[in-house]
Description:
Largest sheet: 16 strands, antiparallel, barrel
Structural class: mainly beta
Shape: globular
Radius of gyration: 23 Å
Number of helices: 4
Helix content: under 10%
Order of helices and strands: HEEHEEEEEEHEEHEEEEEEEEEEEEEE
Number of strands: 24
Amino acid sequence: MRASKNRVLLSMMAGCLLMTSVVVAQQGPTHHASSNVATTYGMTGQAEDQYVPQQPQTIYTNTNYQVVDPLAEAESAYPHQLNGQGTYSGFHGDQYDFGYQPSYSYQLCEPSYCPGLTCGQWFVTGWLDQGFTYNTDKPRSRTNGPLKFNDRSNEYQLNQIYLSMGRSVANSGCSWDVGGRVDLLYGSDYLWTSAIGLETHTTYASGLSSEDPSALPSQWNSNDGPRAGGTASRFGLAMPQLYAEMYIPVHCGLNIKAGHFYSIMGYESVMSPQNFFYSHSYTMMYGQPMTHTGILFSQRLTHRLTGIFGVTRGWDTWEDPNGKLSYLAGFRWNSWDRRTEFSWVAASGNETVTDKFGGTGNSTKDAIRSHYSMVLSHQLTPRLKLVAQHDLGYEKYAAYESIDYIPQFVNGHWYSVSGYAFYQLTEKLTFGIRGEWFRDVNSGRIYRDYPIRTVDNRTTTQLTDGSDYSQVTVGLNWKPYNCLVIRPEARWDWSGVCKVNTNGTPTGIDGMYNGKSQTTIALSTYITY
């Protein structure tokens, strides 16, 4: 079994290497002689060759690499404020060159957003996201196994009524600039975007703490409802972003963001219009944070390379119960024609505060969680875009086992490989496919039912067996109108994780944890405003 899994892993790695070789092969100067090259002028005023896609132009297929680029957040989050050449029209007709050309986009403001309300750099925008997920297993729990966001089976979900407002900030030029942003989210997704100490309390009523905000009692919303084991309401309010931002004309440009903001790790986003699929990957749901609270520095080192450094209060926290700081660092790079982008971001800090033994103190005060995420995207043709992501994480004292009634800590680690392909069928219709393998050693990220192993008199009486999760998702994005996107999808999940007794008989929960597969079919739509 392990040999077959290793072969699967090697084949996936070989596929990533093949994609990388294709990317490298296309980065040479041969494009300069092509008719698809036009001359543009960048931040330095020097003439630059810029790849210009031929017809048919694409619609939104996640082609604008938005989530992992904090320096380009102004243009990625508020594309309605940009013109077709990737520049921001500021006061008095000033042009701030972001060093960014819309790669293969139908019109930078067209794919996901309607104009909204804008006045110069001030903006008010948002969307409404809703959907229905049918689970062929019809689980008694009415939950789709480990899936978040579209977590309810055979039930309508109003996921996001989203409002974003503030003042966008330039990230190049010779003048200082200041701004900020506040985002409000109402809907079923509040449960997965809450932060400890903001929307939730920092501890349970018993005084015990947790590093999972969805498990803690809410101080903004009802604690009575069908979710989180009967302790959370269907819908609620969250404030996933509240920050101030400043641009300083140092070297090629320095942006400083301070406050509460989305994580810059990974490819997928909490914000619905930035995702092709309605459901999310295991890596996004369990392998990386949703939000940070702290300060983030984004220094543009060259026209195509940005360095990133931040100090935060950890994963999904507003007020960190353990009082420890976490750190993140990384970089973002894009090719000369903007068709290829690569990012690598790492984070490390003391994240674990749960007393897994059930006492009253924090018995895991020395636990450290470290993690990195890397994403490579490439626009292979005007119709086809490929994305690959790899994550790896390690957490000290992630779980524990009971040996002759004596609890003993065990470390956890996780790693994953994900791949995406988006192909434009027509001007308004795009096909997408996503595949993923996620390994959660010692169940420190997903299952989290402790002790993971119980041994009495050298006899194992219960064991959490397995560590692998896989999923394949196929879907369409149909855009009949500028402000409306309809997203049907079908998803197949498999998990080898289950809890077994002395005889190896599964004793796990209802769902996909007994080594079974799960098939879900979803239809969602979002309307931007």
